[in-house]
Amino acid sequence: MLRGCSIWFASAYSSRAAATTSLLASALSGLAAAATFAVLGWLVHDGQMALAVAGTAVVGIRTGAADVTSLVRTANGLYEEALFVADLERLQREAERRAIPTGGADLPHRPDTISLEGVGFTYPGRSTPALTDITLQCRDRLKLNTFNALTSTACRCSKPLNNVSIGAQ
To answer: Can you give the residue ranges of every domain in the chain?
Structure first.
């Protein structure tokens, strides 16, 4: 539960920071545009610039601003895609590390019994096991279901056997 809370807090903090940055950027952008148009208006009013030239400058400024906005959005999208690619590469490395080893004998189609002896469970990132020397024997017509698999060590240990049916149904 605490991990979920910390993820929510980090997400809320990140969203608040992004909103603050966006608000500040929009305010500064609006001030810069207002100052630019005020200077153009002053130049036209003072006779230093023709109205047609000022109109062309306004069109150029708006087009340039739209192009800069598009460039920033494209760069942001590229950065997000790069993060997804990095995550995918990390996932592939992790999948290779956790791959089921080859070899051994195939299991019968419907085993009568599944036995585990001397099994332990260690949480990722921990050096000491949470469970040790577990023996479990599932006989014919037993259905094993685990619930609350995110919080219970026993449920996490038996997760590979979740919804395993033994024998004829």
So the answer is: 2-97, 114-165
